Amino acid sequence: MKKMDRKLANRYFKERTRYMIIYFVVWFIVSYGVVLFAEPLSGFTLNGYPFHYFMGAQGAIVTFIILLFINASVSDAIDKKYGITDSSDKRLRRGKVINN
Fold first, then answer.
1. Distance between CA atoms of 6 and 11, rounded to whole angstroms?
2. Number of Cβ within a 10 Å radius of residue 73
3. Closest Cα to residue 31, out of 56, 50, 51?
4. 51/47 Cα distance (integer angstroms)
5. What CA–CA distance (Å, rounded) separates 11 from 42?
6. Average confidence (pLDDT) over 55-79
7. Which residues pair with 46 in a beta bridge?
8. In 3-state terms, what secondary structure has residue 29?
9. How far apart are CA 92 and CA 26, in angstroms?
């Protein structure tokens, strides 16, 4: 049984991959970019702390948590766009039995 049209599946994974690349770029900038440019960024302050220190202590963690929520929201929107919903997923899984 064919679950999803191949062209549709390729577009779906291409769109998902594009967003994952964007998330990794943001992750890289927040993780390493701030460290690499710590000295020029030390002129900025956030909550009274130098920007690079704040990002290392709290900003990176907050950014990653925000990325998780954005990823979940965007993923749900993409799933809806391609017709992947909980009900369709259950329909596709109906009748399948996992044999161990």
1. 9
2. 10
3. 56
4. 9
5. 43
6. 93
7. 49
8. helix
9. 35
The string of DSSP codes covering 40-95 is HHTT-EETTEEHHHHIIIIIHHHHHHHHHHHHHHHHHHHHHHTT--HHHHHHHHTT
What is the band of 1 on the pLDDT scale with cuts at 50, 70, 90?
very low
Least-confidence region, from 40-44, 77-81, 94-98: 94-98
Structure tokens at 89: 């997923």
Distance CA 14, CA 10 (A): 6
Average pLDDT, the chain: 85
**Which residue, chain included where needed, has tokens 């679950």?**
3
